[in-house]
Write a structure and sequence with these properties.
This protein has 267 residues and is α/β, with parallel strands linked by helices. It has one domain: 3-Layer(aba) Sandwich (Rossmann fold), CATH 3.40.50.1820. It is 31% helix and 20% strand. It has nine helices and eight strands. The chain has an eight-stranded mixed β-sheet, with helices on both faces. Helix 2 packs across helix 4.
Amino acid sequence: MKLDTIKLEHSSGATLTLYLHDIVELREKARPIILITPGGAYRFVSEREAEPVAIAFYNAGYHAAVLRYSCQEDARNMQPMIEVLESIRILKEHAEEWRIAADKIAVCGFSAGGHLAAASGTMWNEPTLMERLGYTGDALKPNAMILGYPVITSGEFAHRESFYNLSGSWEDDQISGFYSIEKRVNSETPPTFIWHTEDDQAVTIENALLMISALRRANVSFECHIFNKGQHGLSLCNTEVNTPNPHCEHWFGLCVEWLDSIGFGLE
């Protein structure tokens, strides 16, 4: 494994940690990569949803990367969106060197990190973001999104703390509404895998339902799994991350199967 951490250019503290497969004699082909954005309400970055998830995807044959993005007051002015899009650009620019399949970059996020992952797929062509990063076209666009119990809406079912940390507003107003993902989904949004639990009291299931409704209206391919039991923040749903839930643990295998089905399988 090649393990490296990069400080992002357009940030004072965000880092991108890479988990790259070594080039071996029997396999030199490029691999898809999963860019992971952990949760934490944009207040902190959850380590339970960081390296353990990266290692799981690595062991499934993918390259992986973890973005530890700006939080709290540093998350204002779209800063985490700048950082996730810069990370995608870095992965694309170094694709040949790192043996990454540049057209197979999936962003996998949990909770508020799910919001950030979803933002990468719906805000990659936001003019202000493209101008700040100095790129146009689809250079910043991910090819797929994996959303675990994601924060989506700034409306009735919002996780208010996440939107406050992003926008500085506790209300469902124009400022926080700018970040409401279900309003941003369109035909250019990449294919999406979503999982959630009916029991989630922190980020309610309506967030996932609003997202799949928006994807459906935009004719974007998606797969969604709603599990009946499980608290918020399950991550891999196993003892390693201290959230054992054998039923919900199936999400990971289902996700890998879904990735295969949209052409992200290992060649």
